[in-house]
Write a structure and sequence with these properties.
With 601 residues, the protein is mainly β. Helix content is 3%, strand content 43%.
Length: 601
């Protein structure tokens, strides 16, 4: 009898572990996880700000076919398309970071022979249009800075060859893109920048030579755009930044001449106060901080070479660790990222090099998760990214090079997620961006080419745990591997409840079976004949199952069964699916059925 992929025709079982557009993606089963790499050469614009999730899809900039840059989209099904910029007359130059407002993308860019302008995209080619580029009659702009969505308003700061201190706003229409206030700070200066909203107020920083950089607010009107407080009096610079909303207030760092301290504001002068003073000195206070993160209703940040936590009060602002855990001779804890109830960060205790750490806000709950590169060498951890409570990051263990790792907050759960490019050189993974349960990233190929990659984290995590429990390691733990020599790929065993620890190619017993490959039968006669498939389906796994039929088995000839599936529960983790399709011998002398199992990006 004819066989397909090692299985009897009529069963026709297939494992699909690549995206829906299989021709455009290369599937790599690595370390038990599945990474799909877009096969066409693509040069991503580096920086996570140039990759933007919206509505379950990912939008990004790449080098265009006609030179310049093109705005692209990859859907949750893996379909990659260019929205605009791949033809010469439409190519973009100087593209800026993407910003989302009300289901549309906004960004600054130029087109050939045009000035810098504000663009909008409704994620169609025809709907990717210029909003405005005639901001001034007599000024040539070189950038639109600090594009930030606050509710249904975009704020930004056009920059020319001078300092550029004007505040503009837009509702996404040409007529609604207007100047809010000229020279916000009242003299030759710069900003506004670093917008943040809290308690109905939009805060930002602006500066001039007379008053320095100080805290401002706006309600979108000229009269409502005001300096909140002159934190550093006179021409001294308060330099407020790292704005972090929490509990109706905005928290930030600022300096009043005694180093960078933690401040908070409710939008009034009287309500803008210092939370905690750290003293003066070279590394005092938040001088080395690059972000303030919120976890469990508290603020976490590095200050004076140590990790601190604050409940928003002076007395409740304390060092998580004291002593020599984070010596001042090495960089302060950095890259703080909240994930799964913990705050992860990169630090160096002076003996292990820079490694991944985590904290729950207590001394006992603060620890180095794993000495990824044993000894005093650093593992170069970076790109810390939360994906639904699991931390993904990059690191070099000295064996695999710089690759993708993940952590659940335990030492045993801090593992290599994918060895994308085997060998000590590594893949140079970067630009980690979460979209739902998918993690997109780039890998280094050449100076000009950084292929787009994607990993389905929800399924990968469940599959990895299943493979590990079966004692599968290395290449034997890959989704497409057949470690038991029975012709059944790991993914199929995972999908149909077969035993991964032994050779197992059972077929499901109709009606009662709780494990086995799909059962395909034919019943009835004449016009009443049907082809019937019964199979198990793993619940809440992220896997997709599809019963399909073909009269020829030729590529592209398969279509979905026409009948309505009948689904019944089999315990808490599984369900039984039965579906039929007509197969009148007078119309279709032969008909083949199979179940496709898809692990999509």
């Amino acid at each position: 009898m004819t066989r397909v992929s090692g299985w009897l025709v009529g069963l026709g079982l297939a494992a699909m572990v690549s995206p829906a557009c299989a021709a455009d993606w290369q599937q790599l089963a690595l370390n038990g996880g599945v990474v799909s790499v877009y096969a066409q050469e693509i040069a991503l614009v580096p920086g996570s700000a140039y990759l933007m999730p919206m509505g379950g899809d990912l939008y990004f900039w790449k080098t265009g076919a006609a030179g310049g840059f093109a705005l692209c989209r990859v859907t949750s099904a893996g379909v990659v398309s260019v929205l605009k910029g791949d033809v010469a007359e439409e190519r973009f130059s100087e593209p800026g970071a993407l910003c989302v407002m009300n289901g549309k993308l906004y960004f600054p860019a130029r087109v050939p022979d045009g000035p810098i302008g504000l663009w909008c995209s409704d994620v169609t080619s025809a709907g990717t249009v210029l909003v405005k580029d005639d901001f001034y009659v007599d000024r040539e702009l070189y950038s639109l800075r600090a594009l930030t969505a606050v509710g249904s308003v975009l704020y930004f700061n056009p920059q020319d060859t001078g300092y550029g201190g004007d505040l503009w706003k837009s509702d996404g229409t040409p007529q609604g893109t207007v100047l809010v206030k000229t020279d916000v700070s009242g003299g030759e200066g710069g900003g506004p920048e670093s917008f943040a909203a809290a308690a109905g107020t939009t805060f930002f920083q602006a500066w001039d030579w007379q008053n320095g950089a100080e805290l401002w607010k706006t309600d979108g009107t000229a009269s409502g755009t005001q300096r909140v407080k002159d934190i550093a009096s006179g021409s001294n610079w308060g330099s407020p930044g790292l704005f972090t909303p929490l509990g109706g207030l905005v928290y930030f760092r600022a300096a009043d001449g005694n180093g960078f301290d933690l401040w908070k504001s409710n939008g009034t002068t009287a309500g803008t106060t210092r939370v905690h003073a750290f003293g003066s000195g070279w590394l005092a206070g938040l001088s080395e901080a690059t972000r303030i993160v919120v976890s469990g209703g508290k603020l976490f940040f590095p200050a004076s070479g140590e990790l601190w936590v604050s409940d928003g009060t002076d007395g409740g602002t304390v060092a998580v660790e004291t002593g020599d855990e984070f010596p001042v001779s090495v960089p302060a804890p950095r890259s703080l990222t909240a994930s799964g109830g913990l705050v992860y960060f990169i630090s160096n205790d002076g003996g292990h090099g820079e490694e991944l750490w985590c904290t729950n806000g207590t001394a006992a709950g603060t620890r180095m998760l794993k000495d990824i590169r044993p000894g005093g060498a650093t593992s170069l951890p970076g790109n810390l990214t939360d994906v639904n409570g699991v931390l993904y990051f990059t690191a070099d263990d000295g064996v695999h090079g710089l690759e993708l790792w993940r952590s659940d907050g335990t030492e045993t759960g801090t593992v290599l997620a994918a060895d994308v490019v085997p060998g000590a050189a590594g893949s140079g993974v970067a630009n980690l961006t979460a979209v739902g349960t998918k993690l997109y990233f780039s890998r280094y190929q050449t100076y000009l080419i950084a292929p787009l990659c994607v990993m389905e984290t929800a399924v990968g995590s469940g599959f990895d745990a299943w493979a590990a429990a079966a004692g599968l390691t290395g290449g034997d733990a890959a989704a497409g591997a057949v470690p038991r020599g029975d012709g059944v790929k790991n993914l199929l065993k995972y999908a149909f409840n077969l035993d991964p620890s032994v050779a197992d190619c059972r077929t499901l017993v109709p009606g009662t079976g709780t494990a086995g490959l799909p059962c395909v039968t034919r019943s009835g006669s004449g016009a009443g004949a049907v082809l019937r498939i019964e199979y198990l389906r793993r619940k809440n796994s992220g896997l997709t199952y599809r019963a399909v039929q073909s009269a020829t088995l030729l590529p592209g000839s398969f279509s979905v069964f026409s009948g309505t599936p009948v689904v019944t529960a089999v315990g808490s983790a599984w369900e039984r699916v039965v579906v039929e399709t007509p197969c009148d011998p007078a119309v279709t002398p032969r008909l083949f059925g199979r179940v496709e199992v898809a692990l999509e990006p």
